[in-house]
Amino acid sequence: MFSSRVTRSVLRRGSNAVVRFCSGESGSHGKSPITKVPLSEAVPWLPKAVYASSSDIVHETKVTTLENGLRVASEPKFGNFCTVGVAIDSGSRFEVALPSGISHFLEKLAYGNTQHMTRETIMGTFEKLGGICDCQSSRDTLIYATSVEARGMAEAVKILSEVILRPQLQPEEITDAQMSVTFDLEDLQLRPEKDVLLTEMIHAAGFRDNTLGLPKICPPENITKIDRSTLFTYLKHHHTPKRMVVAGVGVEHDALVEFAQKYFVEMPPIWETDPTLANIHRLSVDHSVAQYTGGLVKEEADLSDVSIGPNPLPELAHIVIGLESVGHQHKDFVTHCVLNMMMGGGGSFSAGGPGKGMYTRLYTNVLNRYHWIHNATAYNHAYEDAGLFCIHASAHPSHLADLTQIITRELSAMNGRMSKEELERAKVQLQSMLLMNLESRPVVFEDIARQVLATGKRLQPQHFMDLIKRVTDDDVMKIAGKMLRSRPSVAALGTLKRLPRMADINVALLSGNRLIKPLSKFAFFQ
């Protein structure tokens, strides 16, 4: 009613009145129009803004080690919800003595029936607490996490202990997991995006047949090999207290320690109360250090028809070229992260925006110059004892040789001089990404859990901000030169008739992509 009266009043006064109404010239304040007020000053006739007050309080992460070696870490945070979870030294790199794919199965079996709770009870509890749950595995870590109302922390810790230490893994659940894993494998082959498969392939090439090179995704031939006994054998030897961290954000530390003691220490795992569940033979945990090998993993595949709708998608050939990097505990890890931000990249049809990285090298030197390149993105995979720095690129199979030339050229150029503006932009973007990610409670939880699992403590964000600030161009050139001296890892997927030889790729990287006498009668870069 009010809005209609205002509209009729403005229309009666004419178009000039509309301008005055929108610009603030009309009204009872009797001041100059709002268009005359500088943006650096507050509008004098509007209510005074109330700003959040700054505080010098630093929320340090508290860590307590229980009698059985279990570590409990927490940090307070405002809000009515909390995130609680468990990080475990578990993952595909530890599956060397058992069929690969166990971690993939454990993801599917998470939050099922346990010794004292059914799946329906677990899900019903989360619904009452307004909570969610998740389980994700990586090559070196398995994380179970929940976000619930703070009042339900005790129930969340209880459920976590049940699903981690006392799962039933009933035969029908195993069958369902086998079907789910089979669907995952089919879905990976059908979906247009091949990032997951290429990540598997580049790790297999970089760490051939050892630790980080073992498959994270269950191979098809192992689906029927992984049974209840195999899973319990793995759990018995890898899900031990000394390999776990119970972490919480938005919780009281003493309360978290109390519930961890009650459910993770005083209540035994199911394989201790029923020793027949696991295989009798003793399984030693693999403590091998990751050995970088480099090499080539390729797969010929017809990707000409990957459309999931009526509009056809272009046929693409994918290539990933990787170099040996460092682990996240290495002194040069932050420098590698800065270099990764400087390279940047993305998709040619990806929308831009602040912080997107449109001035990174892979955008300015690659995507903006060559219309036929669909994707060029830099990644830095870091683990405790090793790392892999790589660039993933995609184009039509007819351009595969040209694409490889361009990517090797950009990798070689990492060893050259960079402008001060380019370096500072990468450092600021990395700092911004670090702080923005840590605004999310689940991200803070994972940061706490992973750091405490690796080092027994958590370094605050300011520590990494200072390390980023101290990175110089000489530091970047030093680590780039060292990476370029390593044997390259190459993963390729699609129609690969124009894929260059490994020897040619290696020579191109070492020579700075200068045209030299080819190793075969066919010039690689013609």
From TrEMBL:
Keyword Disulfide bond included in the entry's annotation: no
Any one GO MF annotation of this record: metal ion binding
Domain Peptidase M16 C-terminal: 225-430
Subcellular location: Mitochondrion inner membrane; Mitochondrion matrix
Signal peptide segment: none
Occurrences of domain Peptidase M16 N-terminal (ranges): 71-219
Keyword annotations from UniProtKB, A to Z: Membrane, Mitochondrion, Mitochondrion inner membrane, Transit peptide
Superkingdom field: Eukaryota
Gene Ontology terms: cellular component: mitochondrial inner membrane; mitochondrial matrix
One Pfam family per UniProt: Peptidase_M16
Record-level GO BP terms: protein processing involved in protein targeting to mitochondrion
Main location: mitochondrion
UniProt cross-references to InterPro entries, sorted A to Z: Metalloenz_LuxS/M16, MPP/UQCRC_Complex, Pept_M16_N, Peptidase_M16_C
Similarity comment: Belongs to the peptidase M16 family.
Subunit details: Heterodimer of PMPCA (alpha) and PMPCB (beta) subunits, forming the mitochondrial processing protease (MPP) in which PMPCA is involved in substrate recognition and binding and PMPCB is the catalytic subunit.
Physiological role: Substrate recognition and binding subunit of the essential mitochondrial processing protease (MPP), which cleaves the mitochondrial sequence off newly imported precursors proteins.
Official protein name in the record: Mitochondrial-processing peptidase subunit alpha
Organism: Scylla olivacea
